[in-house]
Predict the structure of Serine/threonine-protein phosphatase.
Amino acid sequence: MSNPNSGVGHNEDAVLHSNMDSIIDRLIKCDNPHNGLQLPENQIRFVCYYARRSLLEEESLLRLKPPIKICGDIHGQFSDLLRIFHLGGHVPKETYLFLGDYVDRGKLSVETLTLLLAYKVRYPKNMYLVRGNHECAKMNRIYGFFDECKRRYSVNLFRSFVSAYDCMPLAAVVGKKIFCAHGGISPRMTCLNDIADVERPLEVPDVGLVCDLLWSDPDEKTRGWGENERGVSYTFGHEVVNLFCKRMKVDLIVRAHQVVEDGYDFFSRQLITIFSAPNYAGQFDNAGAIMNVDDNLVITFTIIRPTYSVKPGGSQGKLLSATGLNRNL
């Protein structure tokens, strides 16, 4: 005998997909991506609600299969996010892993995060979102996202976004051999299951494994583990990277969290920093990059050039920094 309610779930999914398609289409086809698009607040909160559900269906440690495209910080640069999809291919034709810091600093964090969350709801197996250190209410109150939500919408919308990214996974492993996190690794980590066992939703703690995954940095001058000038977490040197890869049986660490001139930068031959916001915050002449991982784990990069440049002298070498910026990227 057929179940009279058998079509209910299917119909609900169809309505949800239709709503997400409409929101995605409006954002992707935004007439002026530098000025953004004022979506109705109830539609954005609708996205956040379903994104929370979708994110919590995943483990805190994502285990993903190639091929996949990996991106670093976006920081509210909505027009550059659209360029990423134009250059790298659109979802669901392509699968993406973003490594956090979707908001703050850039002026269109609402559109940026809404589009990514809508993609997550609509195509959960083609869009993966790892949490960055700026997916944190405390950071947002300092670096712009809270003010943007309050000015353009309401404090309640900000809370809806926070409730969504409190559910984001913390790291990923691609093809069993590429470890990915926003910031880096942790001295408290003994195995990959330490991450998988973290329960969500959660706020970002001030210390510990989760904090380190979002905040730590590689450093050429550090031997072992060192004090981080950000005032949070640690720095780590070449030998720590090599030991981590050996113990976790991975070949490569991919992380974001720092501006790099060419959009990507190598450290210790087993770690890559990827940054996907070109001309970051309007203060650097850096390129952004997309890391392409094929079925055989062969890596290539797609470079995203700035659409406009800062004054000569804005570029400061392979690993860029600036007073007031590098501390809390």
User: Anything to note?
Assistant: The domain at 9-328 is CATH 3.60.21.10 (Purple Acid Phosphatase; chain A, domain 2). The first strand starts at residue 61 and ends at 64.
